[in-house]
Amino acid sequence: MDPLERYEPILDDFEAFRAACERPLPSVVRVNRIKATREQATRAFDEENVEWTPREWNENVLEIEGKPGNTWPSFHGWTHGQEEVSSIPAFVLDPEPGERVLDSCAAPGSKTTQLAALMDDTGLVVANDSNLGRLSALRFNTERLGVTCAAVTNQDARNFSLKPFGLSAFDAALVDVPCSCEGTVRKNPTALDDWGLDHIEGVAGVQKGILRRAVQATREGGTVVYSTCTFAPEENEAVLDYVLAREDCRLVEYDIGLRSEPGLTEWHGDEFDESIRKAKRFYPHHNDTGGFFCAKLEVGQ
Amino acid sequence: MSENGDDGTELATNDGQRFDRLPATEEDREVSGRASREEVLDWWDDRFGIPPETFEEASFWEKGKGKIWILDGDLESPVHIEALGMTFLRTRQRHWKPTTNAAQRFGRRATKNVVELDGEQARRFARGEDQEIEWDGDWGYLIAAHEIAGEIEPLGVGLFLHGELQSLVPGGRQRDL
């Protein structure tokens, strides 16, 4: 069975969607403001004759020609190769310098380093991942990008303990959960090879546990951002619906400057909370990106 | 092996599995052989002319034998986690050695023991190659730098001995540019 076919009823132009999924992704980097300004990074690209184009929605996200890793700005940690939609959740979270932020599923660290940069490398970003093997990539990236405000933990995010830090709550949490990765086919053509509804149901159970714990660990009035790189409503809207019914939190609107569709309120006979329309679905054919889902929540009523 | 502190009490040995904050000064030392915050700041000042104020907001930690980490802000010591801030400096050896990442992050403020490389030399350095260079300053660990986007930017740490600059860029950070 073709896993993406089941989304035909909810898409505006299924053929354009299919065609976009078959094209490779453009090469995109994010400027790391801990080590350089956008002007320094683009001037260095100019000196190397690397062509760059800023993305309209965010001037610190640049499309470049060629491999992003083989440039002087990359060597210096001025830029970080990061898929365009993957930079959405940290911008939506929009942390302030000095805040204390949890990144529940942090490896390999693109979003951790982005959060640290948005905080001017001050405060505390707790970068957690349950997979010990993936922590080396996370640490490599935080160090290369010059992050000094991050702490790396190896816990199951479903029962994350704040004990090592003597904190009672975080100001915010980024919950970019492991998912069925349907939105990454442009980067990885074999992403859907192991696709199955039982896998989606299993991973959705884990996602619910991780999001619940992140909401509990965030202070009243704090922000939680939930994201996946998949289209599956079972892992997106259904997870939000489950957590909204059980934890003290609500969906809030946000603006990111990229084209998106609202979160679904119905899927295969299941109805979801009306407020889930405030979540956004990003489709490959709308912005020439990978697929993505992102919701912003506020803790407390 | 144990060592006695200034007041005659026995010093503890380093526990390499957890993060312990460095003592403020030598007088506050409770763990044998552990560098103090003051010594670390003095070392960067003496070796590279990076002023101690640079690190005013930071705390320093040891985890592993002689591996010093820098964290923005502070936490209650000790901390039992995987990583805390950035690896910063190697102590417990005769010549202290800064990390590549610390040199890149803080080396812009250095005023001495910075060797400026030209385009080809910088590319060789980034590939991890050793090379002969003209340098009549101190021997030992230097910050290698080059000009990019109109400014001098640190590439990493080099070891200068007998007319040769060894690139200490770790394998995973080396690039053919």
Helix percent of chain A reads: 25-40%
Can you tell me the CATH topology of chain A? Answer: Rossmann fold
Question: What is the rounded distance between the termini of chain A?
Answer: 43 Å
The outline of chain A comes out as globular
User: How many β-strands of chain B, per DSSP?
Assistant: 11
Task: Quickly give the CATH architecture of chain A.
Answer: 3-Layer(aba) Sandwich
Report the principal-axis shape of chain B: elongated
Main β-sheet of chain A: number of strands, strand sense, barrel status? 9 strands, mixed
Name of the top-level CATH class of chain A: Alpha Beta
Strand content of the residues of chain A, in percent?
15-25%
Most extensive chain interface and residues per partner: A-B, 39 and 33 residues
Average pLDDT for all residues of chain B = 94
What class, by secondary structure content of chain A?
alpha/beta
Count the helices of chain A. How many? Answer: 9
pLDDT averaged over residues of chain A: 96
Estimated structural class of chain B: alpha+beta
| Overall radius of gyration of chain A | 19 Å
Low-confidence stretches of chain A: none
Give the count of helical stretches of chain B. 3
Q: Give the end-to-end Cα distance of chain B, rounded to a whole number of Å.
A: 48 Å
Give a structural overview.
- The complex is a heterodimer of chains A (301) and B (177).
- In chain A, strands 5, 6, 7, 8, 9, 10, 11, 14 and 15 form a nine-stranded mixed β-sheet that branches. In chain A, strands 2-3-1-4 form a four-stranded antiparallel β-sheet. Chain A has a two-stranded antiparallel sheet with strand order 12-13.
- Chain A is built from nine helices and 15 strands.
- The model of chain A has no long low-confidence stretch (mean pLDDT 96).
- Chain A has helices at residues 14-22, 38-47, 72-75, 88-93, 110-118, 135-144, 197-216, 237-246, 284-287; strands at 28-31, 52-55, 58-64, 79-81, 100-103, 124-128, 150-153, 170-176, 218-228, 249-252, 261-262, 266-267, 270-271, 280-282, 292-299.
- Chain A is α/β, with parallel strands linked by helices and 301 residues long.
- In chain A, helix 7 (197-216) packs parallel to helix 8.
- Helices cover 16% and strands 29% of the residues of chain B.
- Chain B contains three helices and eleven strands; from the N terminus they run E-H-E-E-E-E-E-H-E-H-E-E-E-E.
- In chain B, strand 10 (151-161) and strand 11 form a beta hairpin.
- Chain B starts with 19 loop residues before the first strand and ends in a 10-residue tail after the last strand.
- Strand 7 (150-153) of chain A pairs antiparallel with strand 4 (83-84) of chain B.
- Chain A: S-adenosyl-L-methionine binds at residues 105-111, 129, 156, 176.
- Chain A: Residues 17-300 form the SAM-dependent MTase RsmB/NOP-type domain.
- Chain A: Keywords: Methyltransferase, RNA-binding, S-adenosyl-L-methionine, Transferase.
- Chain A: Belongs to the class I-like SAM-binding methyltransferase superfamily. RsmB/NOP family.
